[in-house]
Amino acid sequence: MNARAYNQLVDTYADNVYRFALKHLKNEMDAKDIVQSTYLKMWDKHESVELAKGKSYLFTTAYHLILDFLKTGKRFQGEEAIIEVQNEDNPSDFDLSETLNWALDKLPEIQKTVVLLRDYEGYSYDEIAEIAGISESQVKVYIFRARKTLKSILIEKELVV
Q1: How far, in Å, are 49, 79, 121 from residue 38 at the CA level?
Q2: Residues 6+ apart with CB under 8 A from 150
Q3: pLDDT tens, 72-113?
Q4: CB 132 within 8 A of CB 113
Q5: What is the pTM (predicted TM-score) of this model?
Q6: Coil, helix or strand for 92?
Q7: CB of 118 within 8 A of CB of 71?
Q8: How far is Cα 81 from Cα 68, in angstroms, rounded to an integer?
Q9: Helix 125-132 crosses helix 54-72 at what angle (to 10 degrees)?
């Protein structure tokens, strides 16, 4: 891949990678760091990455960086994080977006990832399998389980009308 193709991938997918990281990390600065690290890693290997595989490479790299970040522990995120933790188990305002994000945070990391890639980003099962490093049938199982869990969480909290 040459510099022109690399720049094309940056222009095309930077926002998508950022949204993906932000949904996982809930912190703009951390999400921006993940995006920057993802593109740096891609640039380091730009000669060996094919343009056709660029999108998959970006999301796979971002996914692994997010997992590494979550494993090493989160940094202190300020007062807004404290307020969010205090209200985490009882969302009082019914804002659909906030409620869905709250419920997504209750899922295991892999289920959250596949749901975000499928339902928020619109990727196909085979693309998700490649990004997450699992089989296509396992992707389907995780999505099914995640949706079932989300439904039960939302119904249990009487958030669905």
Answers
A1: 13, 28, 17
A2: 100, 103, 104, 107, 115
A3: 875 544 444 433 444 444 444 456 778 788 888 889 999 999
A4: yes
A5: 0.67
A6: coil
A7: no
A8: 20
A9: 50
- Cα–Cα distance for residue pair 120/21, rounded to 1 Å: 12
Tokens representing 6 are: 């690399």
pLDDT > 70: percent of the chain:
83
Domains located in the chain, CATH noted? 1-86 (1.10.1740), 90-161 (1.10.10.10)
User: Which amino acid, residue 101?
Assistant: N
The letter for the amino acid at 98 is E
Alpha-helical (H) ranges within 26-107 are 28-44, 54-72, 79-86, 96-104
Among the listed residues 3, 36, 20, 45, the one whose alpha carbon sits nearest the alpha carbon of residue 127: 20
Residues 102 and 91: beta-carbon distance below 8 Å: yes
Is 94 in contact with 159 (CB distance < 8 Å)?
A: yes
Q: Are 1 and 54 in contact (CB under 8 A)?
A: yes
* Best CA proximity match to 123, nearest among 14, 9, 16, 12: 16
